[in-house]
């Protein structure tokens, strides 16, 4: 049974094989060898690609990339601030790079993330803990009034406010 209504965690198995229930974990059985999902949740991987490298092509990377390309939609030459440089943030930075952003400012509390973020297009880094003023003010000063687009990738309400306020009028 693949009825979407059955996706609720009701203790029942949604799938079976040869009459035996297949139990799932985290809603979609993504830690199982076989599963059934909507085609929009599948990424085709080149069979020649090394699995130890492509394993990061998960929801985090694609979420950030998609949010930047499909929602923020930076234009070539624009500036973008990315709040949070985990998997989602790195995907967002890559989306800004693909779109042609000229400045990609990474914002994270962990300064060690900047080196890795450079590989995804981040050109500048701000650690809010290293400044005595709000990060949105730091970014406004760096960019002469604020960035063109920002993408918040932490889930923190404070970061959401900062990301909103660092965009120029």
Helix and strand succession? EEHHEHEHEHEH
| Fraction of residues in H or I helices | 25-40%
| Distance between the ends | 51 Å
- In the CATH hierarchy, the third-tier topology of the largest domain is known as Rossmann fold
Oligomer: single chain
Radius of gyration: 20 Å
Cofactor: Zn(2+)
Protein name: Alcohol dehydrogenase 1
Organism: Leavenworthia crassa
GO molecular function, one term: zinc ion binding
Structure overview:
This protein is α/β, with parallel strands linked by helices. The protein has helices at residues 51-54, 59-72, 87-99, 113-118, 135-143, 157-165, and strands at residues 15-17, 20-22, 79-83, 103-107, 124-126, 149-152. The longest helix is centred in the middle third of the chain and has 14 residues, at 59-72. It folds into two domains: 1-42, no CATH class; 59-165, NAD(P)-binding Rossmann-like Domain (Rossmann fold), CATH 3.40.50.720.
């Amino acid at each position: 049974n693949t009825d979407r209504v059955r996706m609720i965690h009701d203790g029942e198995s949604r799938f079976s094989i040869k009459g035996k229930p297949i139990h799932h974990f985290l809603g979609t059985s993504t830690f199982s060898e076989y599963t059934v999902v909507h085609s929009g949740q599948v990424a085709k991987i080149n069979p020649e690609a090394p699995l130890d490298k492509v394993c990061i092509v998960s929801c985090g990377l694609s979420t950030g990339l998609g949010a930047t390309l499909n929602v923020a939609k930076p234009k070539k030459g624009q500036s973008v601030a990315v709040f949070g440089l985990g998997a989602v943030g790195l995907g967002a930075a890559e989306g800004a790079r693909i779109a042609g952003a000229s400045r990609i400012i990474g914002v994270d509390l962990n300064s060690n993330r900047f080196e890795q973020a450079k590989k995804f297009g981040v050109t500048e880094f701000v650690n809010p803990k290293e400044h005595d003023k709000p990060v949105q003010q730091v970014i406004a000063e760096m960019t002469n009034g604020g960035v063109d687009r920002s993408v918040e990738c932490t889930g923190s309400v404070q970061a959401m406010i900062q990301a909103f306020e660092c965009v120029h009028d």
